Amino acid sequence: MYKFSLGFFLIFISILLVSVVNGSAAIDESVEIKSVIDGVSFTTTSEDIFKLADVETRCADWDNSTGFISPKSFLASLIVGKTGYLDIDSLYLTDNSGNYNRTDCVIYISYNSSHYLNINQVMIEHGLVIINNYENDFNPEFWTRYTLKQAIPEFPSRIIIPILVSVTLFLFISTKILKERRNSL
Question: What is the pLDDT of residues 148-163, one digit of tens each?
């Protein structure tokens, strides 16, 4: 029969927590949306400029006369005048590829009392943007349209992971040392 070890149990729990936390988003900032610049960029009432992470418009000069809604007007209908809850990229804080110095983010808005709506995902689902998965904190493959409000931690997951690993290692090493001291007595 296998002997139960507290250290292995703690490592198992840490791995589970890391995988759960890593799959959720983190709200870094809440902002009031003032206007939309283009199909992927917007400004806040504090005049900050943000860009939807990992997406690009299908066509920069989409003609509304074709009967298709433009990415800019669709994005505006979703977010202007609302509070946006931003998961900001911490790897590369700004996107300098365009005409603006923009901060990359995944933007959520309140959908109902229990869910946020992922605007980046909505834009993808409507075919107004295409995925361009840059090297950053985000992975569009794991985005969902709705996210439970309690599933989003109030501080970034990149802080939780090192804390969990450190605590697990500390407890594992401490139990080993205590066990060795008990055996030497």
Answer: 987 665 555 556 667 7
Q: Which residues of 42-62 are buried (b: 16+ CB within 10 A; e: fewer)?
A: bbbeeeebbbbbbbbbeeeeb
For the domain bounded by 29-154, which CATH number is listed?
Answer: 2.40.50.90
86-133 pLDDT, tens digit per residue, is: 999 888 766 656 556 889 999 999 999 999 999 999 999 999 999 998
DSSP annotation of 26 reads -
By the 8 A CB rule, do 162 and 78 touch? no
What is the rounded end-to-end Cα distance, in angstroms, of the chain? 27
Cα dihedral 177, 179, 183, 185 in deg (nearest 10): 70
Q: Where are the alpha helices (DSSP H) in the chain?
A: 6-22, 71-79, 119-125, 157-184
- Under a CB-based contact definition with an 8 Å cutoff, are residues 71 and 111 in contact? no
Q: How far is CA 52 from CA 15, 121, 175, in A?
A: 30, 10, 46
Tell me which residue of 122, 158, 155 sits closest to 138, measured CA to CA. 158
User: What contacts 93, CB < 8 A, 6 or more positions away?
Assistant: 103, 104
Cβ–Cβ < 8 Å for 26, 157: yes
User: Taking the model in full, what pTM does it have?
Assistant: 0.67
